[in-house]
## 1
Amino acid sequence: MVYASGIRLPCVPHLYKSSAPSGFNGDRRRKIFAGKSSKEFDASPLIITASEKVLVPGSQSDDPSAVTDQLETPETVSEDIEVRNGIESLQMEDNENVEIEDHGPVTLQGKVSSEKSEVKREVGPRSIPPPGAGQNIYEIDPNLLGHRQHLDYRYGRYKQMCEDIDKYEGGLAAFSRGYEKFGFIRSDTGITYREWAPGAKSASLIGDFNNWNPNADIMTQNEFGVWEIFLPNNADGSPPIPHGSRVKIHMDTPSGIKDSIPAWIKFSVQAPGEIPYNGIYYDPPEEEKYVFQHPQPKKPKSLRIYEAHVGMSSTEPIINTYANFRDDVLPRIKRLGYNAVQIMAVQEHSYYASFGYHVTNFFAPSSRCGTPDDLKSLIDKAHELGLLVLMDIVHSHASNNVLDGLNMFDGTDGHYFHSGSRGYHWMWDSRLFNYGSWEVLRFLLSNARWWLEEYKFDGFRFDGVTSMMYTHHGLQVAFTGNYSEYFGFATDVDAVVYLMLVNDMIHGLYPEAVSIGEDVSGMPTFCIPVQDGGVGFDYRLQMAIADKWIELLKKRDEDWKMGAIVHTMTNRRWLEKCVAYAESHDQALVGDKTIAFWLMDKDMYDFMALDRPSTPRIDRGIALHKMIRLVTMGLGGEAYLNFMGNEFGHPEWIDFPRGDQRLPNGQFVPGNNFSYDKCRRRFDLGDADYLRYRGMQEFDRAMQHLEEKYG
């Protein structure tokens, strides 16, 4: 590591020499015209809310029956739509080469050799199937027939979106490659930078390369709100922006002058002693780029997932690195018998204590743990060990950080998000995406594909899906299983259509990838393929199991009812696979208690050494800790998950370093003096042969290997 311009960088900026010419494989310029049409894109009421009357496109009546009549026929939603948020789209084709803006063909992140093969894979074995009839869900679950009006409308909106993407963008495969068009694009002749910011009045690119002069590199805007600038190579052929240098976009917005990190930035870093982050132009020379050595493992019949957080994976009170996790933690996961690791907090987040869920830079891996190439090395090592690597991806909301993130990016409240109260999550204090926006769809679909394509992740755990699917976000709502709770005015159809599209893209282009959704509501059709009318996830997190165990742990032993336990474990929808877990990271956070702590409490501090007498509480706690896991794995679902350290009953809780704060309501919340003491994993306890933790870890290991052998 070296320091340049006050920032810790992966290496000294190098001169870049591009390889042989390469292009977009024949991308043609195609405009999405904002001319007259039957209706506007945003006017289609993909979201049906209880607080307002919503008319289907084309209906002029205020009569509620008009809504019903329109919704019954999906054909009514298959009209042409006007794409208000469109941009000049470069349609991906395989038969011609066209230069863009006469600056030479655009390369894909400086990589030349893989482009042709990628396109061929997409049109061959890697292809997104066309929408099906979407009617099989009624055969799978006849109870859905009572809500056919809503479900057919939902599928009609999905089919219409597919048609529009095919028409205006050349298909979902091309639409999901927005990272080849937006952000910084390297070509033989220079660097093109594009940014969608329709609210900005003016924009310029600033950074170390031009001494942060806002008048040096002025950008131009097209009629669709996309700002662009081309920077030619230096006279000696070196790139105009050195690798590792800081960059931002300077904008005059309705909210004033602001400097923002580019939305599609691939790396961002917080300088020592500074609060704001800086975008980093990350484009190392070819010889320094990490090259994957090992193939991705095949998807196993049953997943055994080890949920992990790289930053807190050290036994020391520090932020751990990708390299240390690769060398120390991955072999441990393999020895324990798990076949997949699910990594939290991958996307860059300015606030460490958010556990990675308040994302500021969606395309950038967290710089606290290392560089993008360090993360690639970690994933490659996991593949060498035969481990799938799943990413905990956050598309349900975004940080409300105005300095570092997407919030108020172009100075307007409704840029990437819904405006007003609908765009704000009052419990999470974060912003909510507008899934009905064309450019938001491009951004999120491309983001999911970026992590699969560039970093070779093997799939995702989508966070906060319940919040996405309902306009009430699941807050202060008790789901009873009544189907009207899932298919009514509170359903955000925009968001459900996005989930269908992203699952379509994942399974079409990456057939071995795994898609898991975190849904607490029990939404029917959640894990049914999209072509059959479902949302398209492979698994849902069976969150009711963990809640059941906590409920029982608060009761007397004689009040534990085996029938109720078995019912909770086996209560899942036919043909919909579940990830079972007794506890995840949620139960380990400060303010909650792990199962081990519920069972053994303070006795864990004094009676876990083998050379001391045990106590009845310790004996009971260890026995139940083992049995709870065994019952959960045996009955709870088609996959199993454990949060790191809980396999041996990790003592205490997780508390991220934080200072004192005062909430908007005036309540004072004391901090922990920014201590890392409770933000680590004491793997040494599970390895110590003189502690009872070792026996709990060995039981979990035996359980994983038993499942591997017998299924």
## 2
Amino acid sequence: MSETRNANEEKKKPPLNGRRALPLNNSNDEENMVPELEAFGLIPRGFNPKDYLQVVDVHMFKEPHEINKQQHHTDKYYNPKLIVRRGQLFQIQIDFNRPYKPETDKFWLEYLIGRYPQQNKGTYIPILVGDVLKPGEWGAKITHKQNNSIRLSIMSSATCIIGKFRLYVAIWTPFGILRTKRNSAMDTYILFNPWCQQDAVYLDDEKEREEYVLNDVGIVFHGNINDIKLRSWSYGQFEENVLDACLFLMDKAEMELSGRGNPIKICRVASAVINSKDDDGVVAGSWDNTYTYGVAPSAWTGSVDILLEYYSSKQPVRYGQCWVFAGVFNTFLRCLGIPARLITNYSSAHDNNANLQLDIFLDDEGKVDPKLTKDCIWNYHCWNEAWMTRPDLPVGFGGWQVVDATPQETSDGMYRCGPASVQAIKHGHVCFQFDAPFVYAEVNSDVVYSRREKDGTQVIEKIDKTHIGPLIVTKEVGGDGMLEITEDYKFQEGSDEERLALETAVMYGVKKQTIQDTLYHPQTDVDMNFQVQKAVLGSDFKVTITFRNNSRNYYTATTYLSGNIVFYTGVTKNEFKRHSFSAKLEPSSSSTSDVVIKSSEYMSDLLDQAAFHFFVTARINETGKILAAQKATVLEIPTLKIKTQGEMVAGKDMSVTVEFTNPLKQTLENVTLRLEGPGVLRTMTKEFRQVPMNSTLIWEVKCIPKRPGLRKLIASLNCDALRHVYGELNVQIQKP
């Protein structure tokens, strides 16, 4: 068998290419041959591999009721293989032919993906067995030994490639490396992990994770703004073969394996491959009401049939319209572990020349002239939002990202759209990739009705600024109701903030034809800046905005401050402060204004790391010019104190005390304390029902340290009102 296999391998070998030593590694499906005996040189006669440690069996604990799938929230996948999420521990057991002796036996694990595995690309991962597992980094540690078996705890990297890995156990002998046979039962799928803080798709709310990752049905809102209709859609991300079909999409797009740990890249690739234009992708669109040789878009009830048909036939599935593309895309994202939701934008603009206005041309009688009118308004348009950090953008633009697989316009030469930061769209910062101007136009265009006179002059009859994108909705978390999210995309129609965002978008290059085209002349004679006062969590603080008018003119500035609570990764959770005021700018002088931020405004929504992001924008009323600034800031979080009593000697009793004083103006409820110290004590937790304000909690723990040397004790405190409270202490454990 292996002979023919090798011959086939030879035949399949790509032609030599002067530009790269190895061909592209862009298929999860293809494999390389891994030698079972990798000799170091000549093998002496009398060498018998059976004299060395041998693997008899490997247990993957891959049943839905077993520990791995339970802990990794993958027990719903109808798939017999092990499925884990990255950056989180999982267990396997190896049975050897005799007891394992760490002094003399040396073995390691190898995870491989694709046809040309390379260590520096993350497609070949050797894992040595060590004593310490670092969170979010590859490693393995023996947790149990019994007779001929060992139990391993394995940690995968929080940035690891997403896909199906092949596992080998390798054993070192003096003459070569012995490996287990290729065994597909040991294949391991690794997915994104919204439960892991180091993962780029980390989502902090368990109810949201259950909805946006684990819910396999959803609702599509359609109809029009005056008559909203809804229908259910089965995403079916856990059904048989759907995971393989989703991984196949990335192979189909020839996406380099080394990029498959990055949700930004995966979304961009998927938004192209889910439509059939330019790459024979999954769904062929049709909007002309003739659906010969296919299924009418409205007939589909879910994504599973579409994905499985494509996976087996490799031909585009006919037909889809926007909600079908969005439904399939949602399945793809949730299946791989990226939190996702389906969005409907009512009265959605499809602006052909991206000039932020939909030009509707009228004839002499005032009727629409179809020859001249190229732009269109969709009753509704569905797209998706995917949740992720955006390390490629400034802080504050992570969180929900618009991705759209419906083929409307090309982006970098292919029909695709996104990911575009919803926060960037709201604030008009459309300079940030990808395709933000297009999405901004979909929700913000003006409708301009104009008529051409006989002599060729154009007369504007009417400008409707509120027609486009008046309502943007998605399914509510944990129910079938409708959640309006228009405010995530735009400020109140007609508000100062909304016009400021528009002017910001225009400043960043969104074309907006004014009636007489004016060039961009920034306001150079006024400077604006702001400072945020350093503050401890739970106290009030102020933001000071300073204007310096360097001119001899008297100006007034309409100023707007937006305070947002953000994750430490820069992802915005919500806006907790809005404040507008008018500043008078006397000639050749400075003026400052303070905005007080009260603890009551931010405490209820505060996140883990107590981080804020402020936007300040000002419009000089006399000139219409915009000044803009943004800053991220973090509050000081109180810490835990750890103390030890008694002598610290291995094998003897010692006592550890954890202390914490509640600094907030409220009682903390359901507080969990956690203490651990590798080699000193096993992880222990303690619940406290209440910690009143200003009171101090003391927790004393007795333990017997096992290993001498410098050790670290780590404690954390967690409750709804307060997170990321830590303390640590280095302790020197003496030899007995």
## 3
Amino acid sequence: AATKLASAEKLMYFCTDQLGLEQDFEQKQMPDGKLPVDGFLLCVDVSRGMNRNFDEQLKFVSNLYNQLAKTKKPIVVVLTKCDEGVERYIRDAHAFALSKKNLQVVETSARSNVNVDLAFSTLVQLVDKSRGKAKIIPYFEALKQQSQQIAAAKDKYEWLVSRIVKSHNEAWPNVSRKMQPAPEYQDYVYLEGTQKAKKLFLQHVQRLKQEHIERRRKMYLALLPQALDALVPDLDEIDHLSRAKAEKLLEAKPDFLKWFVVLEETPWDATSHVDNVDNERIPFDLLETPAAEQLYEAHLEKLRNERKRAEMRRAFRENLETSPFVTPGKPWEEARSFIMNEDFYLWLEESVYMDIYGKHQKQLIDKAKEDFQELLLEYSELFYELELDAKPSKEKMGVIQEVLGEEQRFKALQKLQAERDALILKHIHFVYHPTKETCPSCAACVDARVEQLLGSRFIRPAERHQKNPLLDSNIDRINLVILGKDGLARELANEIRALCTNDDKYVIEGKMYELSLRPIEGNVRLPVNAFQTPTFQPHGCLCLYNSKESLSYVVESIEKSRESTIGRRDNHLAQLPLTLILVNKRGDASGETLQSLIQQGQQIASKLQCVFLDPASAGIGYGRNINEKHISQVLKGLLDSKRNLNLVSSTSGLKDAAADADLRIVMCLMCGDPVSADD
């Protein structure tokens, strides 16, 4: 209770926990000479102490207060250890202070650093009346405010750490020096201390390390299926091996070290390999993890499924080859119910079977066409008495079909009547115009092959940079719909096919196009008459009419087709290029009826926003008046359309062929002598 002290060279404050570590903490000494005391903090421990009676303690505090009161100095009662305080002790301490002339009481906790500053500032205010009076806050309310303050400071400090520390290899001394000027660091250290700040830093670094390891793990696991595909793609090699033997097999592979690395220390995530970003090889001990084991099992399952799918594809092809229900030209929708079973649907999607079926159908059709061509050659006498323009009458066509009708090779193309008729017309065209362009052997024609060989081996200097479109391997494809009523579409399709090569290719202005025709004469809302199918994407449409009725049919069909695609993402038919053609009736080349049909066609063409061709401007007739020039003119008009230019791909030229070949090779081909593969 003394008010004057003399304690030179003594520390102003000291903690027993610092014994032996004094130099690690800031030291402040008492000033020299006598030190006057201006006030007292009377501390009362309100926790439950061992072997201590709080009532006896309160008596001691009361006696101590009596001594302090004699000094006439300000006194503040400080309740300590309130974080472990007993409610009755706190209540009794407040009652004691109230009985002693309303002593001010501050509830504190040094451990939680709650209200410690408030205790001193309250006493300072009592000593210096000029200072503002401090507001005394109860412990739990102060603890809540401080918790909020610490939480906010912690958030700011963690933000600071995340902004500065980007690598898990950062060290605390370097980082702490960088952060010291920052208020976020200073505020948190003031509230929680350096050790807690370091602890949060270490937690952040550990989190960065785990994230880095997880990224590397995901990268390795993503690479593992590729490694397994490259090293063990054969199911027979690993199907019955244990995991240990499978790993030994991997190590024995020549490319093992290209995909994997064997580390001297394990596990891999505790080695320096995890930080070697230039080495993306998979640590071999990663295969022991559950995730890698699952990927290995998935690899096995994938190989088994691939084998099963291959077996299903093979079985399906064999089923097609042996099925009596699969005939040339039979649509997939008709054949599906006869050749599909549950196993097929279980292992493969229907689109796969449709692709296999389409390829098989092509083989069947090509073989049927080849056989039918042989049949036509066998019955060559049927074609000797035709008119000079090689255009058979309907009666003559009827006779031809009647004679050939009993032949199985004729019946094989029953579902491809249009193509069968086209083959007949093409054969007739060849009989009366036997050239390499009309030859049924097409590319295999000896005349064409000799000409190609000569042209490729002996190129004149002026011709070296010229291109031969007939030899161009990049042939454009034109899918063309022919719309017409009462046989108009089918007859024009046959006329065009008769002018094509044997493999349905057509030359326009020296450029070769693969021509696929789809004649439509019925209700376009039916699938069989649809403009577009899964295997046929139209590039243009020729609309034929020779009467008001056939013109009405064309308009209705176009409108129905466009309506069927409204709202679809692939609304291709809305921009499909159209060409409206007036086809003259036989014997009707002029007159009011023709002029009326022309006017109506022009009006409809304007409505449909399409090209209109009339007999006077295009020189197009029908029946005996139509010829190759007219058809080429129609197709050229379609190709020249601005909208169609975006649908037909451009072709690239033929590369310059090497010259200086031996002429004797050509002579051997012409005379029939055998020529070796090397020649």
